[in-house]
Amino acid sequence: MTEPFVPVSLSPSSAPDALPSPWPALAALRLPSTVAEALAFAEELSLQRAVPGDGRTRELFEALGTLACHDLAVARAAEPHLDAHAILRQSGIDPGARGTWGVFASEGGEPLVVERSNDTWQVTGTKQWCSLAGQLDMALVTAIVAPEAGSGGSGSGGSGSATGPGERRLFGVRLRDPGITVERGAWHARGLTEVESGPVHFDRVDALPIGAPGWYLERPGFSWGAIAVAACWFGGAVGLARTLFESVSPDSSVSPVSRASSSSPASPGISPFALMHLGRVDALLEDSRRALLEAAERIDDGRATGPEGRLLAKRVRATVARASEEILLRVGHALGPAPLALDAAHAKRVADLTLYLRQHHAEKDDASLGSTVAALGTPPW
Fold it and tell me: Could you give a GO molecular-function term held by this entry (predicted)?
C-alpha cells in the first residue's frame, strides 16, 4: 500500500503530533499531477479565500509548500492564480468563480503601453515571462500609461486617482481576446517544462484598471506574495531533503538508485559524509521554516505592511533562497550522479527548483536588502 503523502508543516519538529491544517491536508490528499489539475485545485482553494493576511497565512504557505514538495511545477502553476485572487480582493474586487488567472508583472524588455480613449483602456506591446498564458482565462498585467493617455483615469473600486503619463499601472485582461497572441516555441527550459513562460503580444487589447497608479507595488500584499513564492521554494527543498533522509534511513524503502552513493565502499553502514550533509540540510530547513512561520504570523497580525513588510520579504526570500541553493548542492554531493540520471522524480525536482530559484535575483536582491538595511539609520540586530 502506498504511504499517504505527508504535508509540509511550519510547526517546530518538536511540537506534539497534530493533524495538519485543512489546506495543506487537502493539498496532500489531492496531489495534482498536471497543470490543469493544479489550476483546478487553485480555484478550489481561492473559493475558500486562501489569501495572505486573512488570518490563515501560515496554512496557505503550508499548502503551497506541500504542493511544491510533491511537484514544483504544480506549485508554480497554482501560486499565481492564488496571488491574482489576493490582489483583486485587496483592490476591492471579488473575483468569485471567474476562471483561472495569471500575474504577468515582469518588466523585461520594452514595457507594455496602455492608451485610454474615453472610458476604454487598451494595452499594446509584448510582455515577457507570461506563464501559462495559453492555458489561463485571464491575467493581471502591468503596463505604462502612454503620454497621450493624459490624466484623470480612475482606478477600480472608485479610487478616482489621476493617472499621469509614464506611470506604471495594473490592468486585468481576458486572454481569449482576439488581440492577444501567445508566442509558441520560446520555452526551452529543462526545469518547469510544463509551465511555459514565453512572450505574449498584445494588440489593442481591452483592459480594466486595477487599483490606483502605483498601487500594485505599494500595497502590502506585494511583499506577502513574494514570501508565498519562497514557501514554494521551501517545499521543493523539503522534497530533496526527504530523498536524502530516506537514503540514510535504515527503515526506508527508498530505491537503490538514491541509496547508491550514501554507503561507504569500505563499510556496509551509512557514510558519515552523507550524515554530515543531512545535518546541515536539517539546519538550513530549520532556518527557512522559522523565517516563513514568523512571516506568516507577522502578516496576520498586521506587522508586515509598508517598509516593514518590504524588509521582511527581502529577508525571508534571501534566507529561503540561500538555504535551497545549498540544499541542492549538498543533496547532490551526498547522493552522487545516480539519482540525477536514473530517478525521474528526483532529476525533475532538481531541475525545477534550480530554475524556480532564479526568481530570486541573487546578488542583485542581496544588494537591495543591504540598501534597505543601511537606510534604517540604526543597526536592526
Answer: oxidoreductase activity, acting on the CH-CH group of donors
Look at residue 263 in the predicted model and tell me its pLDDT. Answer: 47
> Is 164's pLDDT higher than 90?
no
pLDDT digits (tens, 9 = 90+) for 249-290: 876 555 545 554 544 443 456 889 999 999 999 999 999 999
> What are the residue ranges spanned by the domains of the chain?
22-98, 102-214, 218-374
Report the candidate in 246, 190, 254, 230 with the shortest Cα–Cα distance to residue 314. Answer: 230
C-alpha cell at 29: 490528499
Count of CB atoms situated within 10 Å of the CB of 31? 15
Which phi and psi angles does 354 have, rounded to 5°?
Answer: -60, -45
The CATH fold of domain 218-374: Butyryl-CoA Dehydrogenase, subunit A; domain 3 (1.20.140)
Q: Residue 248's closest CA among 326, 327, 334, 330?
A: 334
- Asked if CATH classification 3.20.20.70 holds for the domain at 102-214, the reply, yes or no, is no
Summary mean pLDDT of the chain: 91
CA-nearest of 257, 229, 256 to 359 is 229
DSSP H helical ranges for the chain = 22-30, 35-46, 57-70, 72-91, 215-218, 220-248, 256-259, 272-300, 306-335, 338-342, 344-356, 362-374
pTM metric for this prediction: 0.92
Name which of 250, 296, 288, 284 is nearest 270 in CA terms. 250
Map residue 163 onto helix, strand or coil: coil
pLDDT value, residue 96: 81
Phi, psi of 128 (to 5 degrees): -85, 160
Given this model, what pLDDT does residue 163 score? Answer: 57
Please, are residues 85 and 51 in contact by the beta-carbon 8 Å criterion? Answer: yes
* C-alpha cell of residue 159: 479610487
